[in-house]
Write a structure and sequence with these properties.
2 domains, mainly alpha, 74% helix, Arc Repressor Mutant, subunit A, 9 helices, single chain, Tetracycline Repressor, domain 2, 190 residues, elongated
Amino acid sequence: MKLKDQEKQARIRQVTIDIVSEQGIAGVKMASVAKRAEVVPSTLYTYYKNKETLIVSTFTYIAQQMTEELHLLFEPVQPFRKLLWNLFEQAIDYKLKHHKEDIFFKMFIVSPYFDKATPETKRALETAARQLMEFGKEQMIIKAETPDMVLIAALDGIIDKLVDYHYKNMLTLDEAIIQAGFDVLWDAVT
């Protein structure tokens, strides 16, 4: 693909993320995406057959970026607590640096479009966390009888709420708050 085409697709993707973070998925209209991305509508339809393919493709891109950043954390040579801390801290950092992408992600997974995402994309999202939880169980540190997805829900829930409260000015995400959040998570899973 030519560089110019990649740049157009990146603009289209970013505009889609911006619109979803401002108006929700329902706010995405192909004509408004084309206009804001400064491409003619026919160009948009060259890359994306319809709104569904645009939304699902944007989600796939975000999921790939997120998993690439978070997969770098899993090094089973470190103690489990350190690995969990790294994932916790990096996930918060990712959500703060990529706030609009995080909003898009949250809206997508509760939308009917989520069913259109590939099974591989869905699995990739949980792979690092699932590997980490299995490692914790093997080390007999976390509750072996608790399903991985329940443990992941505890991890995601605490991280999401801390970031949400930060953006709503209900708390400042400083080191003390992040540590307190991690301590609550640790108590929940061990």
